[in-house]
Each structure stands twice: as structure tokens, then as C-alpha cells.
Design a protein that fits this description.
This protein is an alpha+beta fold. It has one domain. The chain is built from four helices and five strands; from the N terminus they run H-E-H-E-H-E-E-E-H. It has helices at about 10-15, 25-35, 60-75, 135-145, and strands spanning about 20, 40-45, 85, 95, 120.
Length: about 150
């Protein structure tokens, strides 16, 4: 970020820009259907992994979508979604996914909204300041997804 707090990279402009909420579960299913897994998605879990330097392969993106969808539906005990945001719901380049167990005020109305749990980005992500490491169960989930030890 520049000294006047304006974003200075394309990723930061996208990350800090206008995002649209995925309000309901059917809308989330439709968003996942519009994702091209081979489009060069960078996957990042805040507090559980280093910022990725390479896009994930299509199989990893497909697996991530299936597993994050199952996690959100199992752990976000609401009749609505409302914790996934995208820069464009029809052709996203950035998707923020908030952890249902670490929400705070994800809508950004607070002075310091929490970081999302996960980011899907078609741009290489920048490092963002993390307030605290991910919980061990989230770290294990992420490491299992990526096959890390």
C-alpha cells in the first residue's frame, strides 16, 4: 500500500475494491459453476500458508471448490450464505471466502474488518498483514488439500 493508503498493485486494487456478496446457497452453487479451474487461480489460506507464487492446477482448484463448499455448508449454520464475496459474480477474478468460525464483521463496516479465511485470485496475491495464525484444524484442512506434510 502507498503512504496515502491507496492500493498500489492490481491485486490490492481488486482486493480493496467493490465486491459483491454471494447471498444465498443457490447463488454460491452458480458461482462455482462459472469458475474455470484451469484459468490460473491462486489459492491462499490466511494464517495457514505462505502467499502462493504459482497458480494451482485445475485438479487442485476443482478439489478446493468442492471441499470449501462442503465446509461452508457444514459450518455456516445460516439459511443464507453471505460470507463469500467476488469482484464480479459472472466472471470473477477475486473471491474472498470468510471462515464461518472466525467472522467478526466481514462486511467491512468496521475500521479493521477481519481477513478472509481464503482467497481465490486470478492475479498473484500480495502478502497482507495477518492478525493471528489460523486454527490448527484449519491448518490441517489446508495442508490436507495441498498434500503438504
Amino acid at each position: 500500500m502507498t503512504t496515502d493508503n491507496s492500493p498500489d498493485t492490481e491485486f490490492q486494487r481488486l482486493y480493496c475494491g467493490r465486491l459483491w456478496s454471494v447471498l444465498d446457497w443457490d447463488q454460491l452453487a452458480a458461482l462455482w459453476q462459472r469458475i474455470d479451474p484451469s484459468a490460473g487461480w491462486y489459492l491462499h489460506a490466511f494464517g495457514a500458508s505462505a502467499v502462493p507464487t504459482h497458480a494451482a492446477d485445475a485438479a487442485t482448484v476443482t478439489d478446493f471448490i468442492a471441499r470449501i463448499d462442503a465446509l461452508l455448508r457444514a459450518e455456516h449454520h445460516e439459511s443464507y450464505c453471505g460470507i463469500v464475496y467476488a469482484d464480479d459474480l459472472d466472471d470473477p477474478r477475486l473471491i474472498k471466502i470468510y471462515d464461518p468460525n472466525k467472522l467478526g464483521s466481514s462486511c467491512g463496516s468496521s475500521k479493521h474488518p477481519p481477513l478472509p479465511g481464503w482467497i481465490m485470485s486470478r492475479l498473484p496475491p500480495d502478502a497482507l498483514p495477518e492478525s493471528r495464525p489460523a486454527a490448527q484444524n484449519r491448518r490441517r484442512w489446508w495442508q490436507g488439500l495441498l498434500g503438504d506434510s
